[in-house]
Amino acid sequence: MSTPGITRLSLNQRTVRRWGVREAIEGCLRHGIDAIGLWREPVADLGLTVSAALIKDAALRVSSVCRGGFFAQPGWLDDNRAAIDEAATLGAPCLVLVVGGLPDGDRDLIATRAHMSDAIAALAPYAADAGVRLALEPMHPMYCADRGVLCTLGQALDVAAPHPPDSVAVMLDTFHLWWDPDVRAQIARAGRERRVAGFQVGDFLRELPADVLLGRAMMGDGVIDFGPLCGAVTAAGYTGDVEVEIFNADIWAADPNDVLAVMKERYASLIAPVLHPADRPPAR
Amino acid sequence: MSTPGITRLSLNQRTVRRWGVREAIEGCLRHGIDAIGLWREPVADLGLTVSAALIKDAALRVSSVCRGGFFAQPGWLDDNRAAIDEAATLGAPCLVLVVGGLPDGDRDLIATRAHMSDAIAALAPYAADAGVRLALEPMHPMYCADRGVLCTLGQALDVAAPHPPDSVAVMLDTFHLWWDPDVRAQIARAGRERRVAGFQVGDFLRELPADVLLGRAMMGDGVIDFGPLCGAVTAAGYTGDVEVEIFNADIWAADPNDVLAVMKERYASLIAPVLHPADRPPAR
Question: What is the pTM of this model?
């Protein structure tokens, strides 16, 4: 089924936001994409059991489930346990955690980060029992206040350090990490510590839009030089799926089939060639 | 002349953008502010010699001159030498360097950063001869593409390391640095390495405006907890001026006298109390 040059490509379904789980699965099959990153909300819309059955029938790999975290919200513990259960049911290797920003009206970044570490410690055994890795996602520092107080890969690895690498690891995303002067050293560290749970690619626009959440772009449309980052990820020993996850108003407004066509072409021309050794399907 | 509680406060003139140098000096005198951070463009508008004479007559301390840098632009070497000369004429202890982003159409962040280091090495002896410190300003990573590839305090200290601390140092700005999980350790390092050239305070808005360049706010209007940052700067041995530098459309639209009144009150209530030991004039 897989298409040469894109064997490790995974569609993060947020990139084609207009599609539900069923349409996204059908899109992957139609376009020869072998893997998908799922989001909990559309999975819930279709139903968890139905979604899991469709994925199994389609023989797609699930590269991740987005997302748990948001540890400042009431009910975070139960919600994250539910997310872990859902990821297990969907056959996902990992649950992406967006840890959340400062609580409303709160400026205590140090305490918020301490609570994040405590929350991860509380969840790690539950995730281990479920066979789901928690994938801590360091986010661009422009989201520190409202979305993610986990800002660098080094910080994420420090937070993960007390836990077994099979239960707490990191999600690498070029959009969030490209600016970090220490990023390649920290990717190498993530490899040494066996903490790379997944890899997402997306570009960073030179001119950010009014809503900075949507400042992501298709690979090639922004400022990121993918060679050094992809080379570091491969050198770190990562051979798994490579998700394309893009929040962008223009991409969301476009025909999802057109988006997939462009995504495949950009992946094949800009990402696969710099993922040394040559693009090949994950061994799992 | 100085007003109790704000003896170390310096007005960065960009905060009152509608004022020229003359009006800013008069505003400082009227409001009992003893120090000012100058910008090259308004200084040139009034004339360098006249500006320097007015500053001397007013007996204001000049805390910094903004700005050199932008090393991707043609003519950067001559322009930065001119900026150093201007800072010396104005009696400024340091010239703030905004190093610039990626050149247009260029994605090579590694090469751009290498050029930045080369440019600083080229300027350092000239600055030393002029008696002006180069103050490398690490900027928030959301500006990495278009404004400053120098993104963290640790990176700035690494870039400064080959040079004498009297000629190459760093400008600390809460707006740019607050999110960094390593910031307090790096501020301590900056103190040990005698590299703190200056300190600027400004707040970070939880909801960024459409132009992220203007996402700064008066202290107290954003998410920054100034206590841990100011405490670290004081523990690092810094006893110099504390500039308020805010790029904000609402503040720029307001009456500058009102802005100064609010600035003084916020400085006295939020900054001076956490600058231990107690607020006192710089010894120079």
Answer: 0.95
